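name: query_chain
kind: protein
chains: 1
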Amino acid sequence: MKHLFSLFLLLIPMAVWSACPSWTSEQAQKQIVALQKEIRHNDDLYYNKHSPVLTDHEYDGLKAQLQSLIQCFPELTLPPVAEENTEGDVDHRAFMGSLKKARDIDDIKKFLKQAGKEIILVQPKIDGVAVELVYQNGKLVAASTRGTGDRGQNILDAVKHMPMIPKALITEYNDIVLHGELFARLNETVKNSVYSSARHYVSGHISRNQLDVSSLGSIEFFPWRWVNSPFDSDKTVINTLYGYGFELPAQHTQRGNTLKEIEKIRHTYNKRSGIEPFLMDGIVLKLDNLELRKKLGWESQNPAWAIAWKFPSDSAITTVKDVDFRVGRTGQITPVLQLEPIAIGGETVRQVSLGSTKNLTEKDIAIGDQISVQLKGAATPVFGQVVLRPEHRTRPKLPDPKKYDAFSCLELKPGCEEQFTERLKWLGISLDIPFLHEPLIKKLMANKAIDRFPDSFKVSESDLKEAGLNEHSSKQLLSVLNTLHRVSLRSQIRALSIPQLGETRSGKLASHFKSWDKILDATPEEMAAVALISVEQARRAKDYLNTSDIRDSIECFRRP
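structure:
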């Protein structure tokens, strides 16, 4: 059973990026080499410079894509991956690897199934800096960062100034090697520091030439492994370490032998991610049986006896498949990235808006790029950053911004379908016109019932029926159109999408002038004074009001 468990872990497949791309071998090789280079660069930032620019989820996405491409193109002969120069002046007493990460709940189910009746311990996965501490004859004699896994940076002086870490142990064991996580306690000192995260706070302070003793007081240590401990059970290790002054593992270790129990623990920690004293990004499952751990050993750089299950991702990496350009009612052009579908936080994200063409060009985004996407607020996907620009990327052709502005597309002309539709949609929203939504608008446009903006006020019952609206709904819509003269002047002003006049300024004009006649007769200077805009802005608004399409629309508001 134990050997089967080890074999099972070796056979866990890597996360698949997506269906294999239809690239030539040359294209695939260039992409793989680019991914390898980018991953090495981020490894250097993470392990050596302690200043990562990617989230763990984004980094995992890069590695998953690399593995997927290698599987998609097994015929390629890839060049050996060169080792990056790594900083480090201390050889570790024992190799420091990283945890295997569960791709989904199925990996956790398989882990539990293969573990059988073995006791599973669950701990929070703390987002800190992995270090090795060495005690000889009870005294702390070495402390180093993980670095390459074999060799790391000497941080003994910094650790000696951390009051929460014992410098001497009352113990019968002459040689104790602990692997664990340095983390910054989430207090006001850390939250108000110049560092972007608690992890950066730790990495920044332990790397300084001139140590800030007061700031080091916020840093603690969570041991997650006693290398070659004299015990058979990790639970015994945890209790022994508690007696030495390492209290956190005893406080944050639970048994979770069923999936339901483990899911509950994970959910609880996720909800408490802003309450616990440390920054964490998931939980860790590991076998309690230390003899079995020794037999299972390591797979490459991962222990075969443990697995990490991260909290639901709020970011991920995906591919830009295309770029759509959408024209709003005011003529603003918004690029929308069409993406390889990616699951984030339980949502499937297929597109993300960039807000403006300026963002597209300044961020240098092209079709084929690998980008990160994050979920913000009410599950709204937002662009994160470009993480890889492959050679076979294609820059999209930008629409001519001179073709679109606040005055364009008041009539249905070639190239105006989108802006004209957005104008009518806004009209329906502002005046609360029932059923005047995009499907009906497009049918009315296709049937030539609406060619100019004021046509929307004059549609007939037969026009609406031909567009698919039933008799009852048609009468409801026409009833509202026939009573638009009763709608507030403020709403009427907003409905026309007049440049420079938002909700507040529309209200000021309506409150002061009280009628369309007085608004149309007002000088730009009078409008500017009332709406609190410049005279030039007021002239632009007046020019818009004097176009034939808007004049005709205003007449529709006046009719009884």
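note: The chain has four domains: 2-72, 90-309, 315-399, 417-558.
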